[in-house]
Specification:
The complex is a heterodimer. By secondary structure, chain A is mainly beta. Chain A contains no helices and eleven strands. The chains are: A mainly beta, B mainly beta.
């Protein structure tokens, strides 16, 4: 079945470390998005990519980086510059009038 | 620019009662509108969507929503709540040159027995 796979489901990071969240899709979609979810704040857009080798900053890009070298993959790196990285991260891949979501990665800084 | 406002971060209903979750949007172009549901520690699942055509949209699990352009609203309803409906619900709008999907802050629905 086509879908989006995020890994790992739970991730722990020490302060000052970079960490990379994986997002893979086999839907053959051009677009891929990363959202951050915090209680009471809904989903906020971090980065998005409409096509391979191209991506744009969303509303809260500071402290994050992405790459889009392959159509299937859109990894998100949470850098040490991100002041409050503990959150639930969701990867999505929209197609015409619908977005498909992964199951999310819960990142905790310890 | 597009935006979405969900009125009421928490809504509680009794089992069998009407569910009404409110969503108002702002968009400079004809919008696509969506409702998603999220269960704890999971991704989002599409309930229903409005793109063009009929303004009353039916979705999964007995939910429906009506697009009212004059009121810039897209409220979600279900005639009779079930315990399994307890979840968080997100309204979203897509439109404009970038086709970004913009979400509201969510409404947590509790269903009391």
């Amino acid at each position: 079945d086509g879908g989006i796979t995020q890994s790992p489901k739970y991730l722990f990071r020490k302060e000052g470390q970079n960490v990379t969240l994986s997002c893979e899709q086999n839907l053959n979609h051009d677009a891929m998005y990363w959202y951050r979810q915090d209680p009471g704040q809904g989903l906020r857009l971090i980065y998005y990519s409409q096509i391979v080798n191209d991506f744009q900053k969303g509303d809260i890009a500071e402290g994050y980086s992405v790459s889009r070298e392959k159509k299937e993959s859109f990894p998100l790196t949470v850098t040490s510059a991100q002041k409050n990285p503990t959150a639930f991260y969701l990867c999505a891949s929209p197609s015409w009038a619908e977005a498909f979501f992964g199951q999310g990665t819960r990142l905790t800084v310890v | 620019a597009q935006s979405v406002t969900q009125l009421g971060s928490h809504v509680s209903v009794s089992e069998g009662a009407l569910v009404l979750l409110r969503c108002n949007y702002s968009s400079s172009v004809p919008p696509y509108l969506f409702w998603y549901v999220q269960y704890p520690n999971q991704g989002l699942q599409l309930l229903l969507k409005y793109t063009t055509g009929a303004t009353l949209v039916k979705g999964i699990n007995g939910f429906e929503a009506e697009f009212k352009k004059s009121e810039t609203s897209f409220h979600l309803t279900k005639p009779s709540a079930h315990m399994s409906d307890a979840a968080e619900y997100f309204c979203a709008v897509e439109g404009g040159a970038t086709n970004k999907l913009i979400f509201g802050t969510g409404t947590l629905l509790a269903v009391q027995p």
